[in-house]
Amino acid sequence: MSSFGVKLAYGTLERVLMHRPGEELLKVTEDTLAEFHFRRPVDRDQFVADYDGMLKLFQSHGVETLLLTDILKNDNDALNTIRHRPNMTYSRDLAAVFKGGAVLMGPHLKGRWGDQWIVGRALERLGVPVLGSIDQPGFLEGGGVTLIGEKMAATSLCDRANEAGTRALRELILGKEVKQFLEVPLPYGNVHIDGLFMVLDEKLCVIYEPAFEVFPCRLYEDGHPGFRNVMFTELLDELSFTCISATKEEKDAGLLNIVVTKQSEHAIGFAGATRIGSEMAKHGIILEGFPADEMWQGNGGAHCMTCPLLIS
Hints:
This protein has 312 residues and is of the alpha/beta class. The chain is built from nine helices and 18 strands. It has a single domain (5-311), classed as L-arginine/glycine Amidinotransferase, Chain A, CATH 3.75.10. The strands form five sheets. A five-stranded mixed beta sheet has the order 7-8-9-12-13.
């Protein structure tokens, strides 16, 4: 079996790159909240305890969890940099892995600039080819990238991404990693698509629909000039998706932040996602939750904190 390769968002998660946070959380102060996008300074011990509970849950689901500092243990420059980067724990934003390799993302926050190159060093050590990178003036983060089925990549134009960033990714993967590329504009105030939409199974998703009722999307297809305009929810109807609708309260609490660990069977998310979990159970998927009140003060959860390397 290959050591890397992601062709589905909802397959069985085999290997994942994660970063267990440490002293860098102390860099988050009242004066730096905007730089690092935290709600407030956190209790480091409780934040790490929340994280460890999540980490053990992934491991109990049979996922191989590769920790960034273990992979880079002999790279003193990388380790010293990480000690100043409290957002490094949100590893999904820094790289998107496809079937043939990874694309290093281009973070928008100045407090994240360069974090992707640290993850790039880890990918190199793990033998994951780097297909390219999103470079300024382009911005795009991994939370704004997802796969819909095996043929389509969707990227959001949002607070953290611009057209230069989505275009750069399209040029790297359309016709190579995917056959279709969907550009999804989101209303102001939305950071990533993964806070609003999550593919849970082949024809199942959870979604906060109001965010997708404002702007039409652009659907590009390999071998076809131009693009087709389509509303996101209409496209899901075309693809015969069943949608679990999330409420505004669930969206604001991060309860769409879910990771499928075994296709059609198991997933991990916040403990508070009980209603969504009960809806998923109707389709045969058990959502196992973990408490994360302190972790959520950093505006991220299980999906944000996992960079999938291998999904079968």
